[in-house]
Amino acid sequence: MMxxxxxxxxxxxxxxxxxxxxxxxxxxxFQQRTPFNAPIVANYFEFALQxxxxxxxxxxxxxxxxxxxxxxxxxxxxxxTAPTAQCGxxxxxxxxxxxxxxxxxxxxLGAFEGWAxxxxxxxxxxxxxxxxxxxxxYDRVFDKLGYKPNYVAYTKEMPKDE
Length: 162
What we know:
Layout: E1 7-10, H1 16-27, H2 38-50, E2 54-60, E3 66-75, E4 84-92, H3 104-118, E5 123-126, H4 135-144
């Protein structure tokens, strides 16, 4: 698949329909209790487009249509004076390697790390949603990229208030 051109850039408002489709694909990778809510997701990403402390970037094909995105923000998670760049959503849709077999997710991650350096963040955090039993695999992959497990989140479904 020689000659396939891709480009990573900051998202613009015209990318929003594509980003919402990608976000729904990301959402549907996991079993959910509630349906995908496009208006709430659009507001979430709209904030990322407008905030100087947020990032919404896309990877596009030769027609400038996004097939992947990454959303991040600057946070003070450890309650110190040092900001942390936190990647909250990171997704690439490359079915049947239609854009080639390059690891575009790593390209987005590298661009995120470059943004973190530019924003003077001494640390980055990449959040991932994962199925039970896959953490060891993610630990091995991210260890090779220089990331160490630090924060862990656990979820619990709450009963409905009747």
